[in-house]
Amino acid sequence: MGANTSASIGDILKHPEVQKVTDNINQEVIERREYKPPVCKVFSSSYTMLEDKPQFEFYVDNEARRRLPGIIDNKVQTIVELQTPEETFKEQFNKKRKIGIVFSGGPAPGGHNVIAGLYDAAQKANPETIIYGFLLGPDGIIEGEAVEITGSLVDRFRNLGGFTMIKTGRAKIDTKEKMELSKKTCKRLGLDALVIVGGDDSNTNAAFLAQEMLADGVQVIGVPKTIDGDIQVRDNNRKVLCAMSFGFHTAARAFSIEIGNLCTDSSSDIKYWHICKVMGRVASHLALETALQTHANITLIGEDLADYVDKERVEKAAAEGVINYHAYGMTLRHLSRVICDGIVRRAAVGKNYGVIVIPEGVLEFINEIQNFIIKLNTIISEYNQTHDTDFHTDFSLLEEKLEYLRRLAGRSQEDNSFTIWNMRDHELFNDIPAFFQEGLLMERDSHGNFQFSQVETDKVVLGMVRDYLNILKENGTYKIGIERDYYRKTLDKGGLDPDFLGPILFQNYDDAQFLLMKSSIMSVKTLKQALVKAGAIAETEKVPAPVEKIFHKSVPKFKTQPHFYGYDGRGNDPTRFDCMYTYNLGLTVFSLIANGATGQMAAIRNLEKDFSQWQPIGIPIAPLMHLEERKGKLTLVLEKSIVDIDSAAFKVVKAFREKWLAAVPGEDNYRRPGPIRFTGKSEEDRPITLVLNALDS
Q1: Cβ atoms 140, 169 nearer than 8 A
Q2: SS3 state of residue 307
Q3: For residue 333, which of 476, 434, 463, 456 has the smallest C-alpha distance?
Q4: d(C-alpha 681, C-alpha 213), whole Å
Q5: pLDDT score of 251
């Protein structure tokens, strides 16, 4: 375009189409903001009340009873409609209130809708009610930094992901000083209630705040948030009260979409194993849901590994009249063998590619790793005490630390009473990649604990897998199967007789669709030796080019692409399920506040069922708490929920492992989760995990 006809950049930027496509707000955001989640039937009534449900009982920790006396006897409360309330009830329900809300911990999709539900319910009851959002997490409460939440602010973030409206933070109100500052903030703002949206630690914080603020008349309500899905509540009779924390469904779907794309890529390019590490340090819920969503070839579930029993070892020990404690729990070595077995079997049918899903915290379920951590903590601590020095200063290099451990192992052979580090420990430790050895021997934190978060889980597992695959490759076990028709065409094209050479080259030539090169043929040199020995060529002749081509195709290359799925999923816009769930959680929060509850966690029962059966409830937080070791001391905390290996969801994944591995000729069994479609009939209405686990209820 010439100078006389070209438009200036100013004119281009003013063009309506340019402004439309470069605007921050696109059609998807507009539609999300306009979406109105359906509400549970009980909330169609102008008034709700709480009914205690004493049939739901919990084991109460004595320490929880001692420290939380004011809320420890709270009951599960169901929210029910109240059609004809008395005037005094109406006045109390509809009174003007000041309510504070805070996000605590990492973001989870749907948080904004908790605020939207709370705001809408509060405004419906009394338009003069004020909602304050504390900025940057609990620090906002401690420091008194808050913003008034208005209708226009809420409307900007309806059905959108993130915690952008008021941000979040990881501070804890865990000292007397912080508690006093928090109480002063609540008093200065004149708060009637405080809502804490967070995970297990945050809801633990909510319980202590509820206890401390009883005298001030400030109600405290918790809301279960974590993409890890490890806040699940059952009573003593295993009745499900909270099946899943919000944000889990969206994160699992976001991860599954990406991993599903890798399944498609893997089966298209057929040369990579994609190693997908997904969030979930303590529990493997996300890995389990991802397996159901994608049918990845191999999915590790940490809780399953912890439950592993080596039956051969058990039987051998029983025959000898002893107990082999090493037979219980998966070792790293065995885990690497299990993964390698799947890789080798797929390669044998021409599939030297695939997708592996690994939960972030899988190593925490490996017994030997936990044993190593305990033993090394003891060794380092005793060394420091005995020598009045620092282990890491005296042994600054990994080689020096390993040599010290070797000497300890040697001592165990000379002194039977010395059991802290024996030869088996040393042998297993030497199997671990050097960088992980160094990680296990790193300096402990200020409380003497191992810093697990610094370990590259996938790198540890892959290092051992790669090492063992090299061994299998060297002994001729790891081979790529050659499709029979391809072999015949290649040799026919080169003027060679495939039926004459087949039995010489392959171990399964008679009846297999995919031909496996004999284990003795591991190089061009051994290939030639086999041909010469069979009389196919003379010693002076070269290996025929078509035969050499087939050989090279049978030699596997283990190529990997690592991926980590975490922050991208927690920042995703929520699924319709999470939009509905969180909006109704917000409505539940207001109902609990309006009815005078404190120390309760807002929840929706029957999430695993159709929306028409969802039941808003309040769950007492204090009875859920127990003593757990944190930072070297026993601390009262809300217990995390791990994957139940007796659940229907896990049993289904276990039953389909062989099918999804697809170590047979033919297509893979990958499932395409598809994108998160906020609208449309194809969007699933709840996590698959919940659908399956509902079969047990």
Answers
A1: yes
A2: coil
A3: 463
A4: 47
A5: 97
User: pLDDT per residue over 378-434, tens digit each?
Assistant: 898 889 889 988 899 999 999 999 999 999 999 998 988 888 999 988 888 887 878
Type of residue found at 383: Y
**Amino acid present at 126:** N
Backbone angles phi and psi of 226, in degrees to 5: 180, 130
**CA–CA distance from 550 to each of 25, 409, 497, 555 (Å)?**
56, 49, 14, 9
Using alpha carbons only, how large is the chain's radius of gyration in Å?
31
pLDDT tens-digit profile of 205-262?
999 999 999 999 999 999 999 999 999 999 999 999 999 999 999 999 999 999 999 9
Question: What domains are there in the chain, each with its CATH number?
Answer: 35-246+578-638 (3.40.50.450), 249-473+560-568+648-675 (3.40.50.460), 479-554 (no CATH)
Query: Strand order of the sheet with strand 77-81?
Result: 48-52, 77-81, 615-620, 600-605, 219-224, 193-198, 98-103, 130-134, 146-149
Q: Indicate the angle between helix axes 484-493 and 498-505, nearest 10 degrees.
A: 130
Which of 500, 564, 576, 559 has its CA nearest to residue 534? 500
Q: Please confirm, yes or no, whether 228 is among the known catalytic residues.
A: yes
Tokens coding 549:
């081509």
Instruction: List the structure tokens of 398.
Output: 């990994």
Distance CA 228, CA 359 (A): 10
User: Which of these, 578, 340, 348, lies nearest to 470 by C-alpha position?
Assistant: 340
**For the whole model, what pTM was predicted?**
0.92
What is the Cα–Cα distance from 656 to 637, expressed in whole angstroms?
36
Tell me which H or E stretch contains 616: strand 615-620
Catalytic residue among 120, 139, 192, 228: 228
And the tokens for 524? 């061009």
Regions of the chain short of the pLDDT cut 50: 1-3
In 3D space, the residue among 362, 364, 286 whose CA is nearest the CA of residue 568 turns out to be: 286
Q: How far apart are CA 384 and CA 317, in angstroms?
A: 38
Judged by phi (left if over 0) then psi (alpha if -120 to 50, else beta), residue 145 lies in beta
